[in-house]
Amino acid sequence: MLDDVSLSLHAGEAMLLTGPNGAGKSTLLRVLAGLRRPDGGALLWDGVPIAEDRTAHATRVAYLGHQDALKPSLSVVENLHLFARAGGGDMTAALKAVDLLPLADLPARLLSAGQKRRAALARVLLAQAPLWLLDEPSLGLDANAIVLLGEAIARHRAAGGVVIATTHVPLPLEDVRHLALPGAPDPADRWWDEESSALSPADHEGASA
Amino acid sequence: MMSLFWAVVFRDLRLALRHGADTLGAVLFFILTGTLFPLALGPSPDLLRHMAPGIIWVCALLAALLPLDRLFGAELEDGSLDQLLLLGLPPALVALAKITAHWLTTGLPLLIAAVPLAIMLGLPTATLPILLAGLLLGSMVLSLVGGMGASIVLGARRGGVLLPLLVLPLITPALIFGAAAIDAARTGLPWGPDLELLGAFLAGALPLCPLAAGAGLRAAVE
Questions:
Q1: Which domain holds residue A83?
Q2: Do B85 and A123 touch (CB under 8 A)?
Q3: Which of A63, A77, A85, A125 is the best residue to mutate to test the B interface, defined by the most B CB atoms within 10 Å of its own CB?
Q4: CA distances from residue A40 to A5, A36, A77, B215 in whole angstroms, order as listed
Q5: CA atoms within 13 A of residue B89's CA, in its CB half-sphere
C-alpha cells in the first residue's frame, strides 16, 4: 500500500503526515512504532535498525493510536498507572497538562470522547519517550484541548523530542515539516502550504534522531 | 523489568475485580456442571466416587477455557494490546503476565472450588491433597497452553470456536495424568509418577508457551 516513502527526523523536529483516507498514514505510524514490520526497507534509530531489538525501540516510542485504549471500568488514574510506572512520568503533571485532573478518579466509561482522547494523550506524556507517534491526536478535542495539545508538543520538542503526527485538520504547530502521502487527490486535505509538502522517492523508510 | 511485569499482572487483577461477575462465572460454571453429573448418573455413591476424578478434571478444564478468548481479545479490540507491547517488556513477558493473571483469577478459584465438589462426589478425604496437587500443576499448565492458544487464534474470525479445538488436544496429557494420580491414590497405588509427569509438563510449558504466545501477540497487532 505504501511504497517509496523516505523520511528522516532530527531531535526537536516535528512532521505532519497528511493524505487522503487509506493512504497509509496509520500504517506508516505503526511501522515507525515497531508494531508492524515493513514489507521492505529499513527503519533506523541513530543509525541502528530497530528490527534488531524491537523491545528496546518500544521504550523510545509513545504511540497514540486510533483507539484510546482505556478500560471503561478503571478510573483515569488506574488506566494510566501502568504506563506511568513504565515511562516514569509524573501522573499529576501529565493530567494537568491535558486538563483532566478534576476527572482523575472518574471511571473511563463516564468520560466523553474528547476527554478519553485527552486521557490517551496523558499516556503519551507519561511515557517520557523521545519519539511521539500521534495518529490524529486532535480527534474529538475541543479548541481549548487542541491548544493544550500544541503546548505539550512544543514542550516535548523544546526538550529535544521528535513528533510525527497524522492529521486532517490544522494543528497548532510551529516550524513543522510535511509529508503528503500519495493517494487519490483530495483538495480538502490540502489546507497546508503546497510548497512545504515533500515526498522524496526512495526504497526505504528511515527515522533518526 | 520484573516490577513492570507485576504491574501488568496487578492491572489485570484489578480489572478482574471490577468485572467480578465475569471472573466468578468460570467458578460457577465449574460447580454447576459438576453438580449435573450426580443428577444425570444417578445418586449411587460408588459410581460417583469412581467417576469423581474424571468429572472434576474435565469440568475444571472446560471452566478454565471460558475466559480464555477474552484474555487477549479484549486487549486487541480496544487498542490496549498496542500499548502493552510498547511498554518495553518483551512480548513473551507481556503474555506471561496475562497468563499469570488468568491463573490467579481462574485457576486458583477453581482449585478452591474443587474441594467442596470432591467432597460432594464422595471422594475419600485422604485423596484430597493429591487432587489439589494435581489440579495446581494442571491448572498452571492449562493457563500456559491456553494463553498460547488464545494468542494464536487472536484476530481469527471464529477464534472462540477455534480455541477449544486447539487447546483441548494439547492439554489431554495433563488430564490423563491428573485424573490417574487421584485414581492411583484412591486404590492405594503409587501416585507420585503421575504428579511428576504433570510437573514435567509444566516445566516444559513454562518457558515455551509464553514465547509462542509473545510471537502470537506480535503477529496479532501487525
A1: 75-128
A2: no
A3: A85
A4: 11, 12, 40, 20
A5: 31
Q: What is the pLDDT of residues A5-52, one digit of tens each?
A: 788 888 888 888 888 888 888 888 888 888 888 888 888 888 888 888
- In A, minimum Cα distance to B8 occurs at A82
Interchain CB distance below 8 Å, A86 and B78: no
Q: Is residue A66 part of a domain?
A: no
Q: Give how far B12 is from chain A: nearest CA, Å.
A: 11
A11 and A79 part of one domain: no
- Confirm if A10 and A174 have CB atoms less than 8 A apart: no
pLDDT in tens, A115-157: 999 999 999 999 889 999 999 988 888 989 999 999 999 999 9
Domain identity same for A209 and A140: yes
Whether residues A81 and B222 touch (CB distance < 8 A) is answered with no
Question: Does residue A67 form part of some domain?
Answer: no
> Do residues A136 and A168 share a domain?
yes
Distance from CA of A202 to the nearest CA of B (A): 23
The pLDDT, as a whole number, for residue B213 is: 94
Residues B143-159 pLDDT 10s? 999 999 999 998 787 77
Closest Cα to residue A125, out of A160, A149, A158?
A149
**Cα B131 from Cα B116, distance rounded (Å):** 12
What is the least distance, in Å, from the CA of A179 to any CA of chain B? 23
CB atoms within 10 A of CB B80: 21
What is the average pLDDT score of chain B? 90
For residue A68, is it within any domain? no
Q: Which residues of B touch A29 (CB under 8 A)?
A: none
Predicted ipTM beyond 0.90: no
